[in-house]
Structures
1.
Amino acid sequence: MSERAGTQAVPRMPPIWGKRIPGRNKHFTGRENLLEELRASLESTTTAAVVPLPQALQGLGGVGKTQLAIEYAWRYRGFYDLVWWVPADQPMLVPSTLAALTNDLKLPSASSAGIEEAAAAVRDALQRGDPIDRWLLIFDNADEPEEIKDFIPQGGPGHVLITSRNSRWSGVADTVPVDVFSTSESVAFLRKRLQRDVAQKEAERLAGELGDLPLALEQAAALQAMTGMTTDEYIELLSQQTRALLGASKSTEYPHTMTAAWQLSVLEIENRMREAAEVLRCLAFFGPDPIPRDVFRRGNKSGAERMGPILANPLTLNKAIAELNRFALVKVEQEAGTVQVHRLVQALLRDSLKKEERDQIRHEVHLLLASGAPTDPENTADWEGFANLLPHVRPSGVVQCPDEDVQRFGIDIVRYLYRVANYNSAKSFGEEFLQHWTEAGGPSSGNVLRLRRHLGNVLWQTGAYTESYTLNEKTLDLMREKFGPEDEETLWMARTYAANLRAQGNFHEAFEQDKASLEAHERAFGPFAPPTLRAINNLALDHALLAQYDTALELQRLAFVEQSSARQGVSKWDVQLAWNGLARVVRLSGDHASACDVGEEAYAHGIRELQIEHALTLMTARDLSIAKRRHGDLEEALDLIQETHARLTKLYGPDNPETMAATVALSNTLRQAGMPEEAMVRAREALPRYKHTFGEDHPFTYGCMINIALLYRLRGDAQRAKEMDEEARAGLLDKVGRDHIYSFSSTINLASDLGALGDVHGACELGAQVLDQIRNFYGPQNLLSLAASVNLSIDMRAVGEAEKGNALYESTMAQYEQLLPPSHPERMVAAKGERFNWDFDPFSL
């Protein structure tokens, strides 16, 4: 749309108009020069190809900064394709507000990318002007610049407005001072608001008494309009109230005239409708953001004594809010279903109450929030309800409430933030709640233990495995003592703790933990209940990590069949995990063709139900690329893993465990595709990250060493390869034991290192030893057994045992012909008489 759009009588609405943008103030008056200067400043930076700085509207509370921003948005909306309102008084909530733009900007959703990453992607897209180049962001009530500046677009074709009482924004924005009204603006406002031709001297006198403060003028005019009070009467009452305040030496950061004007309005409300005054006092203890009116509709059974009679009668509540709206003490947005009180009025209301009353009303707000909240943070349909309540959690002081139901609400807030992938906020709230609740109720109170479990999950998702393990280990002990070993909370915690053990590399301990957990689940819930199926899925993973693929496959089939056909209690996440787990175990069992087929279906399900960049979908894509690589579809495997790796790096960064696993898979695929140097770059990227995240002695760390050693041998440095394989093999034998695929792989590769160094007798001896071990564990027709047989036949010929070597090779080829088609890559390697190299790919734990 061209600049001419602004000349339209009714500018068109932008295609993207934020739900949080307040309605236009029909009483807005004056500020014409300020609006024109603001518009000219924004346009000049854009048209002159200068990097546009944000414009910060700065001034005292009640001066009308927010109203000015609202008017700008409405007046100039025709020039923009996107207008978005960002409440910034709680900086930790800014990312989620920005992340809500991902769908409009065709970016990965917050549920797949994480809140912080999604917000950063939105910022970057706006800076680029892709796909929208005419946009307006308004950050309202931003306090400290350092807390949100990283989320403000730096440059780009759009505009940024900031409202703040803090003058320090001058360092990062063009500051636009917003002062009180001029006398002429005050007079014009009073005439417009009172809808009568107020005499000039009368209006000037009233404006002078109120210091031309817009908020005070609004409330004075509303009071006069509602009561018919004359200006002289109002000024006399105002004088009496101000003298009373001065006489009491009341400490306040606000003008005494503002306090007095507010008190006059409240006194009149008290006289006209006591219930309205009670509602106003209640609203003062919410946050300054819009308050969903559903909170009051649902709160009639909250146990709030003061508000109880009002909430029991919806007509009384509606009349009270309407009365407050008429006196300009609240702002009602009918379409949004919200009511809002200016932060200045809230502060004045709270200051006017005695401590006992403040504590009582604040607790009633806690009860209302808890009773008005949705019931299930896991349900995507409930997420908007939680998002609307989130801005009121900290301002209302929920953290200090000892009520169990209110604390359950706090836990649900952490769960909601975890589910929408806002891990930083979930961690912040969780740690804050945990500290206060532990101090108040002790470390073993029920809600403290429940909170600890969810905080442990949050820490796990951020990659803080050690912190998660330490917290969860203690929590499980406390839960067993408090709730009993087969309580639902304890059993859930047991499953989480097993995941901690896997992350520590203690696969056998995790198996024992999950085995006992499954038996307890079956006793508590039955064999096919949703919690039991999750336990079965976990145990299948344990068997796979222990290289017990037959049992893993049996359990994984059961989990997938039951979860994918369940009608309730099983989420899309559960199904995706089980489906991909099935594809992975089929691959590990050696049926690469079927693994590709199952993996393709699982990947399609993830794209369809969870979106292409959801973490579980990307995990499935990585496993599918490995199946394709093993099956010989190198071109498709490389395309898929390159795309998946790029998405994971963009969404989570290179240090995320899923990105790290994709880096390993990419390296292995590059090696098989004939690009060993590129493969080495990726392999060297992965190893230090595994050491840092999982530890020096984790099986996955040793697996990464196996991959690098293989690449060293292929580039001709067999001595370096031997040293790394010896270190990896020793570590694996100690950590997972002799009978494990990781130990077998390191031994097979070490034998090849010895052969490359000319120690053919050592290679032959080690190869024969590991072949016996593999056959005893897997059987003679396992693909690893066949690969070890081919390698041993080569070494046997090298030591002069040609007849035995040829016989072993011929019998092995006969088995390949029975098991695999001629085009299978492993049969083709064997047919050429080439040595097998075995690599490592990590699991998602």
2.
Amino acid sequence: MKLATSLASTALCVSLGLPNLSAAQSTPAVPQADPAMEVVVVRGSRLPESVPGDVKPELVVGTFEIRTTGATTLPELLVTLLPQTQSGVRRGDNKPILLVNGRRVADFSEIRAIPVRAIRRVEVYPEDVALRYGFPADQKVVNLILFGKFSITGITGGIGQSADAERETYDVVLDSTKIDTNGRSVYSFDAQKASGVSEEDLGLSLSPGGIPSIRSILPETETYRFSGAIGRTVGRLGEQGYATLGVDAQSETSQSILSRASTGAQLARDYEATKAKASVTLEGIVKDRRWNTIVSAYSEDEATRTDRADGRARDRTNQQLKGASFDGTLAGPVPGLPAGTGAFNVRTQASTEKLESDYQRGLQAGAEDIDRTKLELSGSFTIPLASRKTAGNPLGDVSLTLNGALASSSDFGGSGGWGTGLNWSPNTELQITTRYSTSEKLPTLEQLGGPQTNIPSASVYDARTGQSVRLDETRGGNGTLLPEQQRDFILGATFAPLQIEGLNLSLTYARNKTEDYIGSIGVNTRAAETAFSSRYQRTSAGTLIGQDTRALNLGDRETETLSFGLSYSRNFGQAPQFLRDIVAKVQKAQEENPDATTLPGGLPPGITPPPGFKPPPGGTPPDFNQLMQAAKIPGGRWNIGLNYAYTLDDTLILKNSGVKLDLLEGDALDTEMGHRHQLTLDGGLNYRGIGGRLAAVWKGESEIATGYGAERLFVEDQATLDLSLFASTDLMPQLNMAVPFLNGAQVRFEINNLTDSARKVTNSAGLVPTAYQSALLEPEGRSFKLSLKKQF
């Protein structure tokens, strides 16, 4: 069989999906360490690009494991790691902090286009590591370690259908990544288009026996995005000096059909948004102290235009947000402490931003012009109290972390926060962490000054009358919002038993208190309408005709959550037989004639090249050691990861009435509240490039006591399953050798919401109010997508 590419290059792709360089390239993408043997997920030796210090990652995913996930892009890979990267603190969006080679990045847009084939290793660290980079200890940290040399260009095209085949989606992605000893460059251009879906398309009506309207449930959209970053080694910045320039530009348009005018013409709402951001990152090391500076500037413009039934000029809203920021950190070790070397971090942030907005709705008009200048100084100090390296120490590793922050904003004045944590690792298998922290979270300028927007004919269930109605819904900013005061306590443990390779367990208890909690009301219960009566507009007969759903300070909220995490993976099978046969022949020839002259192919002395083997023309000869490693790797892998959260308590004291609501016992203000159980699961199987993944999210049931008589709303539990099947040539050496063009190709078929699951909301009579029809709550339903990716 003839080989179109070198055997060494193919062998590397077989083993790990490593960058497969063409014959015209002079240097193969071979990592300096021994990645072919990184098939143990849980443990591994520390790499130079790891997070500095003695902190150990909770999870390490090696090169082979990364390839077998079937992911081709960084966002896809992060989805497969979602159960392991969710924080037990359960604050905000629960997304992890991302590092690249142990370094901060200015924005996710700088790295989102990095292909999975460029990632050598992934490390997941506990929340306390976030303090070492100047972030609050409420997010886990994910460190991506890249190959030292890599070059690839890719194109991806996809088509999909959803909403009972009424919505069609198209997308194309062009990306390019190059990594060498001087730095890296990453570029990506995305284009997406989706058709609209109306109530008429799905046969929906908001009145029993009514005629479906042409009102859009899903808008028609077009999105274009370009993002990229250039990073270069700069010796003048000191040891490991590095500079990065990143840009991100987006454009989005959409159109929704609202209804028909008396003339028969369609009334539409048009939306346009353009966003741009640029950042410069400088970093280096001076005497073991790493410094980092990020300077960013951004601009966002949004506009809506809405037709009016009375034929007057279109309603309009405009919003423009501009800002700039400076972010500088200094971190490093603190030697000479009694129990070992400590660590410190100091972070300085300065930002300024301005929001200008205005609206015109018939004869009503308004405008907002608000700005904010903010300064913040924060720092953390980790003190080792005991170390296993000390002879006779029965405690193991113990460290204390102290952190604090001072801030001042032009609109809310001064504030501060502090925290302390204790980390104890009695042995290499177990790590226990406890932490208490306080902080302040300011409302965003959009929450404060976004333009008032009217959503005509919005579908709302009026619990007071037991009827579904169409009304005018008001959205936008609320200038009376106050900052949230947050207090968090966590106690967590991670366990990775040496006896069961590939198993990681975690258990976390979290107690969160939030004063002046910012949220919105989704159901007009008696308690909510009494406390915030100005948010509801009724006629003298009691008919609900308007509702204000802008964010407000609901009150003081307290939650207690117990979460359990599990990660387990196993490798199985062997490398392809033909590859093992080649290695056996080469070893035998080497034993028979160890002193022979090296052949042109770069094979060991005295070896007759196997049939079909040819050295790459003008390229670097293959490395036989890499070939042997490729023959030892497993043939496949399966893994499972899950995170289960059980809410012990969730209470809210309403700000304007002092009424205490038990959100777990029916006092919820929204169908998203009151779930006691939540499970996130991701599992996959891959054998020599063919595999699949199943991801699931399950939420337990909840109910809402409206306070109007015995009327209650029951929200059933819901499980959403996403299935993806793929065939990736990265782990198909024989196919790559027979058809070289297919190297780096993947075909993927995805089914999101496999069971067409939707939230089911019923009233006390067991009926589904028309405002809570499943197609209105989750109009996408089951969706299908077929995509093809080719990397060159």
